[in-house]
Hints:
The chain is α/β, with parallel strands linked by helices. It has 2 domains: 6-44 and 289-407, Aspartate Aminotransferase, domain 1, CATH 3.90.1150; 48-286, 3-Layer(aba) Sandwich (Aspartate Aminotransferase, domain 2). Helix content is 46%, strand content 13%. The strands form 3 sheets. It has a 7-stranded mixed beta sheet, with helices on both faces. α2 packs parallel to α12, α3 runs antiparallel to α10 and α5 runs parallel beside α6. The longest helix is centred in the C-terminal third of the chain and has 25 residues, at 288-312. The model is unreliable at 401-408 (pLDDT under 50).
Amino acid sequence: MPSEFYRVKRLPPYVFEEVNRLKAEARARGADIIDFGMGNPDLATPDFIVDKLIETIRKPRTNRYSASRGIQGLRRAQAAYYDRRFGVKLNPDTQVIATLGSKEGLANMAQAITAPGDVILVPNPTYPIHQFGFLLSGGVIRHLPAQPDEEFLRKLDHAVRHSIPKPIAVILNYPSNPTAYVADMDFYKEVVAYAKKQDLFILSDLAYAEIYFDGNPPPSVLEVPGAMDVTVEFTSLSKTFNMPGWRMGFAVGNERLVAALARIKSYLDYGAFTPIQVAAAAALNGPVEEIEKIRNVYKVRRDALVDSFSRAGWEIPSPAATMFAWAPVPEPFAKLGSLGFSKLLIEKADVAVAPGLGFGEYGEGFVRIALVENEQRIRQAARNIRRFLASGDETLHNVIPIAATRSS
């Protein structure tokens, strides 16, 4: 019998596993690790959402199986949100489906539309499920640049013209995880026009639509006239309302794609726990001030990170959106690679980040820093990093020979 199963063999090594192991070992030794590695919000869910959950959970009928595609009140709330926020009209019965977070929605959409050998165009670096969902479904990945610019559009055209078979879909993710790139309407118009011309589906991940700091709110690709003909967009309440463990997301847009996802899900789950769905509807219908409070926390943390790390000797580009900074590995440590540098930060500075390599090969040379620690902890991390960078020559002298030995 084969040592590994077919779908498991298609997955690359899990880069974050080594970092997670080092974090666990350091904590077992009593180290106070300041952890910027995982995008796991540390803030409380707003009280009015929790109160609605508690109120609903006391009703015996809500303990029954729920609806796989989401209860009607929740789908209506999501449609109303899209109307208010983007000016996009959605039919809650045919163009909205609730998912167990955007990650599950993306993975099951891959199952719904992918035949073995189908080509999917995916940015690199990107959130891992964007490619792994299709790899698990038997698809083939071709990479595009992550930045939403003319080079992306050129590479998109090149990939379509030179892929056999012709690609079936392109992934968009703006504001982007991990790079924090933001797309504008001109870019979306170009992509939609090209996708319609080439008969491509667009799968847009808009999980960070409400976490932005400078300038206008990020748009939805569905705002482009005609985008609904080829597009499904995924959103999540995880970051918008500090609800990551609640696993509540949505897919909206093209009726054919939504119906395909709904059919797959009908065989796999009964939907989220009904009280969670009721509370999620309350969140979407709730006051925008709650979203603004959360957004402001991340802005304050972003500013603290960029300022304090810069003073420590590590220049961090200021992200315009998301809860992440995408930072180049400091030059003296570039030869270690993003994984080697991330491991060294844990060992020598008690600071954890996510190696860029974990988001794709073109993420090498960068690390992702999640804004999931408060200002005090951010400034403590900066002090640790200042001491670490000051000892850089000595540290590298000890580390590089070891790394060279292991690679030979």
